[in-house]
User: Which sequence fits this backbone?
């Protein structure tokens, strides 16, 4: 009879979880460092108590077996049902599939991070501005604001004298702007630009307003008397992606590196390319994803396109899964993107 693993919902005691976990034979396959990712010290103690002395000593070193980790995390997020029962074979297959996805995503060609950061900041229209509050004893206070980016990579704001963050910036120009490609997904790209904000000079005000209106054509308030253009000079930029997915990437850039990076030239065509593919060729996109990643997906919708590939939102085993699909080579033009997609589809459908 095949071995079974009982996955219980988080509401049950951790003893219920641990008591149904198989006890591996080596320290490397145990989970002694679980306390670093789960607040329960009891869970750590129970896991270590079921291990060998050698495994117990590895607690201090933070060694953790990925299979055991996945099993425990599955147990702790088992959903509303009382219990789930899966065979060891099923659990092993899930692990292998996830490993295949992780390996593909780590190897998938992407834009250089500083270029991707510059491109994402240029494309998104709203960000979270954090200022040093005058009224709250210097605490940082965030505000959701529309913004634009000038040709030099500096963030442009059109702020009202009535807004608290305007007064904060007048008193202390230090601030940060958080820009997320998807605010509802913390594993997606998140960029934080820190720097100082100062009013745009009279001689540069017309250009600043023009750049802001290009991104926000309905911003009629730019000419109101109580509004002014403010420009954030980047000093430091932090790039984060892949959090909670096993593909985490964190990079830091100087303000000069960020400003010197060029916006990816293909990104300007991302919207029409994605619209066409999603409307007329969604099945073909799905086949390309399945061929490249080596998994079966129910659907795949293109979200972003750049010179080195595209991002899709797929449905995998009934759940949303974002994936990076690289081009066989760098795309040099919009027409070249079409050529590359045709090549990828031909490879996916080849017998």
Assistant:
């Amino acid at each position: 009879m095949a071995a079974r693993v009982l996955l219980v919902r988080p509401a049950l005691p951790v003893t219920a979880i641990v008591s149904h976990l198989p006890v591996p034979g080596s320290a490397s396959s145990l989970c002694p460092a679980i306390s670093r990712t789960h607040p329960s010290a009891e869970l750590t103690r129970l896991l270590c108590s079921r291990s060998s002395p050698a495994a117990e000593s590895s607690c201090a070193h933070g060694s953790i077996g990925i299979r055991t980790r996945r099993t425990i995390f599955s147990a702790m997020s088992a959903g509303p049902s009382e219990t789930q029962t899966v065979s060891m074979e099923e659990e092993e297959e899930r692990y292998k599939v996830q490993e295949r996805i992780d390996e593909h995503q780590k190897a998938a060609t992407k834009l250089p991070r500083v270029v991707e950061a510059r491109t994402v900041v240029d494309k998104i229209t709203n960000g979270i501005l954090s200022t040093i509050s005058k009224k709250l004893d210097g605490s940082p206070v965030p505000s959701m604001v529309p913004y634009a980016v000038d040709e030099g990579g500096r963030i442009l704001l059109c702020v009202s004298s009535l807004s608290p963050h305007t007064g904060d910036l007048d008193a202390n120009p230090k601030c940060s702007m958080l820009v997320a490609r998807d605010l509802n997904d913390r594993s997606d790209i998140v960029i934080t630009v820190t720097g100082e904000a100062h009013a745009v000079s009279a001689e540069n005000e017309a250009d600043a307003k023009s750049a802001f209106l290009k991104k926000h054509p309905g911003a009629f308030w730019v000419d109101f008397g109580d509004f002014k253009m403010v420009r954030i000079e980047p000093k430091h930029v932090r790039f984060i992606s892949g959090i909670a997915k096993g593909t985490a990437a964190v990079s830091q850039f100087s303000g000069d590196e960020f400003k010197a990076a060029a916006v990816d030239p293909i990104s300007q065509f991302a919207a029409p390319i994605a619209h066409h593919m999603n409307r007329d060729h969604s099945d073909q996109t799905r086949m390309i994803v399945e061929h490249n990643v080596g998994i079966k997906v129910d659907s795949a919708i293109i979200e972003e396109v750049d010179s080195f590939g595209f991002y899709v939102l797929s449905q995998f085993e009934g759940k949303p899964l974002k994936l990076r699909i690289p081009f066989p080579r760098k795309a040099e033009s919009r027409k070249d993107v079409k050529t590359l997609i045709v090549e990828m589809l031909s490879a996916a459908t080849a017998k």
